[in-house]
Prior knowledge:
Layout: H1 2-21, E1 28-36, E2 47-50, E3 54-57, E4 59-60, E5 65-72, E6 80-89, E7 95-99, E8 103-105, E9 109-114, E10 120-123, H2 126-147, H3 154-173, H4 179-187, H5 197-205, H6 214-235, E11 246-247, H7 254-260, E12 263-269, H8 274-290, E13 296-302, H9 307-315, E14 323-325, H10 328-338, E15 345-350, E16 355-358, H11 366-372
Parallel strand pairs: 1-9, 12-13, 13-14
Antiparallel strand pairs: 1-5, 2-3, 2-6, 4-5, 6-7, 6-8, 9-10, 11-14, 12-15, 15-16
Helix pairs in contact: 1-6, 2-3, 2-4, 3-4, 5-6
Protein name: Thioredoxin domain-containing protein
Subcellular location: Cell envelope
Pfam families: Thioredoxin_8
Amino acid sequence: MKFQKLVLSSICFLIFINHCYSQEIKEKTVQLKVNIQELNDFKENVKLIFNRTDTIVLINKSKTSFEGELKGRFDFERPQSARLMVNVNGVGQDDKIIQSPYFLIDSSNIVVNWDLGQVISVEGGPENQLLQLFHKVEQEAASEIKNYSIGLDRDIIDSINQVKNIKFLTLIEESVDSHSAYTKLLTLLRPSSFDLRAEIEKTVSSFSKSSFSDEELRLLKNRYEEYVQRVEFQNDPSNFPVFSTLPFQETISFESLKSKHDYLLIDVWATWCGPCLAQHPTIDSLYSANKDTKDFTIVGLAISSSKDHWLNYLKKGVVKYPNYYLDSDNSEIFKKALNIMEIPRYVLLRTRDLKIVEQQIEFNNIERVLRKYKLIE
């Protein structure tokens, strides 16, 4: 239910933002000048992409200067993002597309200086000034990570990113009447920023009521609360992860199976795991002795395996209990969520709230654990 509410809320948020941009705004003319280093193998002129899909070709005034004029219902306080694109000759017959970092249509006169890389400077309105400060922080963090050796420790990268997020928050706190600050704060609502949630909450509450509507401020607060709930859910090891499975032959879906039993005893195995395969006959006998009860059932989840090997093994009829295959991506989701370092692994899931009540059941203790929960006599 929490995830359904999250999805619905996110959809409503996007609809609202789109509604804000579609309000009656006076038509404006924007003069754009782009200074770009000379590149002899241009295949086409410089293009400007704005409003996600709208494109204009800039007029080539000299080897390094391009100009364009935009007319539309622009709101400089809630500016549209834009970026430059050039199409150049690449290796062989392939063309190479180079795109600039984003900037904003936030004034009637904008000058962009671009080095054909990730460095860009913009002379425009205050929203662009703030965006460039965000770009600078991002570039400094990327440069610091790049300057380390190839075997950079994950903790060091996390530390650099943490400092980057703190700098972002400082800039946002100083610009609580800015739409760019509002947008940037939304990008910080991710798991890597969770240690800063108290500071983020304070910043959410500090946005200017004179610059944002009650609805915008309410939506921002709701997004923050949903973010906290989502990450707390993901960080709780007792919560069962969300992943996709492939059922073996005519087996019912894993989602349907969860709804038919109060508990699932999950056998986590792989086709290459000798101990897993050796224990299957015993697990299958336990399944056969209890297959008619609603209290629980046994299910196999094959991870980190070849799908063909999985199919060929199950076709031998070694086990009769429902079995499902997890591809490489879903295997990683599952292993990370349960911190699986070795298999076989036996897990007991309570289906009414999708809580893992037993994380690591020893093979010899399976029946004792089932008796503990009064699932067998």
